[in-house]
Design brief:
heterodimer, A: 237 residues, 85% helix, globular, B: 244 residues, alpha/beta, Rossmann fold, 6-stranded mixed beta sheet
């Protein structure tokens, strides 16, 4: 019985191992070049500054403005990293080496998504404290639930974005096509994340944000499962 | 040019009536052949004849429209297991230029689940005379050196079938010699090879079998022991004149 269970789990273990290898490789490349991370970070910080100076504090309270600013910035800075995700594979057809290897297509997708999640998480780790600083929003009491929202929203954004990055990369208008394809699917995630963030930053009890968190979790489950299953079809000619 | 290894052995690759269509275009239009361990098929033909498509189907990068292909007895549709037995070399290096030569080959070794990856990576790089530059980033290497690293990457898991699409592209004389030596060594250890090239001399020097492909079909195919360089040159020129 135990041997039978182990045999059934082996493909899952193989997929996770392959995904980890690919994620590690992508992070090593990003660590060497830092091109996408720095671009995304500079974009996020500039976005915060621009919104700050465009903001009339007498008309809109910081706690009302900050959630929207935060998620607009994460959405667009994330796209920079997502575009790069499969971009590194097209240079000299590295993707052919991956696809010809025994690693499953699902592992390739998950590896890319894990690397993108760490990328987006790193941008968030700097941008959220920067937002607190610029908009004078106290995060002390809501740090833990805010981190949960950030992680849940990032998982959904990355799943959808990674799939569309794979679809757009071989087109001539990849930079244009990726946001056009991905943004409509980002909308429900961004609405849920910004609503949950708004509840937290306005000092409402965490339980009031719970419904939005559950919705984010549901989006994550649907998007991760459907995008993982859909990816193999994007690489079959 | 005849192979010393018996063709009666279990074939490494068996292709039967393989077809691959792109819309109305038949890129591969019913190709059949088989190669036993240690045999090498040199594939010639004009641009657009379907040579690269055939290799991409056998590498698992494209699904065949119809027909069948088996690698070491495993149907290509079997996916990962069949792909694990194949090594792919192309005129594209398939390398990550931000990583070092060693990191690229090591990444490939781990993808193929090699346990003693470190030793195998060293060995593969040594065979392609790239050990001294192993820690240099691929970006800093010349085109020829990148191609050597790419070949080391394709060989690191000791494939049973090597698919080489214009493998001599970008290699200098010493690189080409090293590649020929590696391919001959692989043949002697039972690896089957399919090499696509426009260079008849290089192709036929390795080949036990040879074929000229045109419009997706083998217009000429000679099995072991019957490959004649002169007549191949004539058929190839004829195919070039009429196009792919």
């Amino acid at each position: 019985m135990r041997r039978h269970t182990a045999r059934r789990l082996q493909p899952v273990a193989d997929i996770l191992f392959g995904a980890w290898l690919i994620a590690r490789k992508d992070l090593a490349i990003e660590f060497r070049t830092r091109s996408a991370f720095l671009s995304a970070l500079v974009f996020a910080l500039l976005g915060l500054v621009i919104f700050y100076y465009a903001w009339d504090p007498t008309a809109v309270a910081a706690t009302d403005l900050a959630p929207g600013v935060l998620w607009v910035i994460f959405t667009f800075s994330g796209l920079l990293g997502l575009h790069r995700s499969f971009g590194v594979e097209t240079a000299d057809h590295a993707i052919d080496g991956l696809l010809a290897s025994p690693v499953s297509r699902e592992a390739i997708f998950l590896g890319k998504a894990i690397a993108n999640l760490i990328f987006v998480g790193a941008v968030q780790a700097i941008a959220i404290p920067a937002l607190a600083l610029f908009y004078n929003v106290p995060l002390g009491n809501v740090a833990a639930p805010l981190i949960a929202i950030a992680i849940l929203a990032a998982i959904g954004l990355v799943a959808v974005g990674t799939l569309f990055s794979a679809m757009a990369v071989n087109t001539r208008l990849a930079e244009l096509l990726l946001p056009m394809l991905a943004l409509p699917f980002f909308v429900p995630i961004v609405i849920a994340a910004s609503q949950a963030t708004s509840k937290l930053l306005s000092g409402r009890p965490v339980i009031e944000a719970a419904a939005w968190l559950k919705l984010l979790l549901a989006f994550d489950i649907v998007f991760v499962a459907s995008c993982t299953l859909a990816y193999p079809f994007t690489v079959e000619d | 040019m005849s192979s010393k290894i018996s063709t009666a052995a279990t074939p490494i690759v068996e292709v039967a009536e393989l077809r691959r269509e792109f819309g109305a275009t038949q890129a591969v239009a019913g190709v059949s052949f088989s190669l036993a361990p240690g045999e090498c098929l040199a594939l010639f033909g004009p641009n657009g004849a379907g040579k690269t498509t055939l290799l991409r189907v056998l590498a698992g990068l494209l699904k065949p429209t119809s027909g069948s292909a088996r690698i070491s007895g495993i149907a290509l549709a079997g996916g990962p297991l069949a792909r694990s037995r194949v090594g792919l070399i192309s005129h594209h290096t398939m390398l990550y230029e931000a990583l070092s030569a060693r990191e690229n080959v090591s990444f490939s070794a781990r993808l193929y689940g090699i346990r003693d990856a470190k030793t195998r990576v060293e060995d593969a790089l040594r065979r392609m005379s790239m050990l001294e530059r192993a820690d240099a980033s691929v970006r800093s290497l010349s085109r020829g050196m990148q191609q050597r690293v790419s070949i080391a990457r394709a060989m690191v898991h000791s494939p049973q079938l090597v698919l080489a699409d214009e493998p001599y592209s970008g290699l200098d004389e010493s690189g080409a010699r090293a590649l020929t030596a590696v391919l001959q060594e692989l043949r002697s250890t039972g690896t089957a090879i399919i090499v696509v090239t426009h260079n008849l001399i290089e192709g036929l020097s390795l080949a036990t079998h040879a074929a000229v492909m045109q419009r997706g079909k083998f217009v000429r195919y000679d099995a072991a022991g019957r490959v004649d360089a002169k007549s191949y040159a004539a058929t190839y020129r004829e195919a070039l004149a009429t196009g792919g």
